[in-house]
Design brief:
6-stranded antiparallel beta barrel, Elongation Factor Tu (Ef-tu), domain 3, 4-stranded antiparallel β-sheet, Helix Hairpins, OB fold (Dihydrolipoamide Acetyltransferase, E2P), 377 residues, disordered N terminus
Length: 377
């Protein structure tokens, strides 16, 4: 009995060992199958990506160094003064021509009143000169009449003297009468000279008044210009919005004294779409042209992709327009790939998305270099 027991146990273990070996073979087979499937899937994926890259990917240039931008305007006063009133708040929407701030206008109102008074004074002086010119004109007419009368009298005296001289030679006239007519000629000629001198004086006075009138007209024109300038300066105390937009970076406060050009706030346009500025590497620009279609993905709006088109490429790299451009001719040199700003105009932005776009938001721009229109030859 004791000798046969080990034999019986060995016979019972043989089927168990065979079952374990078959299980291992099945596991290995499954693993090989899975690995083959994964390898085939990987090859298929690589093939698909390869075909897609060959058909599309190699024509796409993408960069995440891109941002939304807009033609924002810094609103500033054109005259100096103390801020009397601020009529807008942060992030508020304003219409074109809306009053955003008002400066104390009392000084400018006083200057306008003074300019108007100077204009009235100049106009009064011009009226006085006009009246004097009319008076001198009458004097000229009177002097001309006196000259005509003196000429007539001198002519008559000359004729009389000639007649009495003839009578005196024939014995029908007296010598005294002939001498009297000669003296009358001298008197009439003196009157004639006096009348002509009076005429010349009146005419010269008329010329002087004409010059004074021209000067008065110039003074009136200068006074009118001063009135217009004073009125403009008074109007400039009312700072208005140049277009429809939203208030940003508001720095103006009541009581603040501002100079011309001091930034009060920034007005961001909201009635039109913003555009994108993408800084592509110089190695990506060989085939990029204006007119290429661009897909713009906004980081703030997952799933939102906007259509755009390349509008233009900057005339230089961003480093060239920096405040302190690099100077590569000095010291050690390390070559760095440069980036060139590319302006991308957004097209057909959905109205539901447009109000949510803000300048400065990060985007990813992908340009398709196949889509630019052929240049016209």
């Amino acid at each position: 009995m004791d000798g046969s027991q080990p034999v019986s146990l060995a016979r019972d273990e043989a089927p168990v060992l065979g079952t374990a070996s078959e299980e291992k073979r099945r596991v290995h087979a499954v693993r090989r199958t899975l690995l083959a499937i994964v390898a085939l899937a990987a090859l298929a994926a690589l093939g698909w990506f390869g075909v897609d890259w060959w058909r599309n990917g190699r024509f796409l240039e993408s960069t995440d160094d891109a941002y939304l931008a807009s033609d924002a305007v810094a609103v500033a006063p054109r005259v100096a003064g103390q801020v009397a009133e601020v009529l807008v708040g942060d992030n508020q929407r304003v219409e074109a021509g809306a009053l955003v701030a008002r400066l104390d206008d009392r000084d400018y109102a006083a200057v306008l009143a003074s300019a108007r008074a100077d204009l009235q004074s100049a106009q009064a002086d011009r009226r006085v000169i006009a009246a004097q010119a009319a008076q001198v004109g009458a004097q000229v007419a009177e002097a001309q009449a006196d000259v005509a009368a003196a000429d007539a009298a001198a002519g008559f005296a000359t004729a009389e003297a000639r007649r009495y001289a003839d009578l005196e030679r024939t014995g029908f006239g007296t010598l005294q009468r002939a001498q009297s007519t000669q003296a009358d000629i001298v008197s009439r000629q003196a009157g004639q000279a006096r009348a002509r001198a009076a005429l010349r004086s009146a005419e010269e006075q008329r010329d002087v008044l004409a010059a004074q009138a021209a000067r008065a007209d110039a003074q009136i024109a200068r006074a009118e210009a001063a009135v217009r300038q004073a009125a403009l300066n008074l109007g400039y105390t009312r700072v208005t919005a140049p277009f429809v937009g939203a208030v940003g970076d508001r720095q103006v406060r009541v009581g603040q004294y501002v100079q011309p050009g001091t930034r009060l706030l920034t007005l961001v346009p909201v009635d039109k779409a913003v555009y994108a500025l993408a800084n592509f590497k110089e190695t990506q620009l060989a085939r990029l042209r204006p007119g290429d279609k661009v897909r713009v993905a906004v980081d703030m709006l997952p799933g939102v992709v906007l259509d755009g088109v390349v509008d233009s490429l900057a005339p230089g790299s961003g480093a060239q327009f920096a405040l302190l451009p690099p100077e590569n001719a000095t010291g050690n040199f390390t070559k760095i790939v440069q980036r060139v700003p590319v302006r991308i105009e957004l097209r057909d932005v959905p109205q539901a998305v447009l109000p949510r776009l803000r300048p400065g938001l990060s985007v990813t721009a992908t340009a398709d270099i196949r889509t630019a229109p052929d240049p016209v030859t």
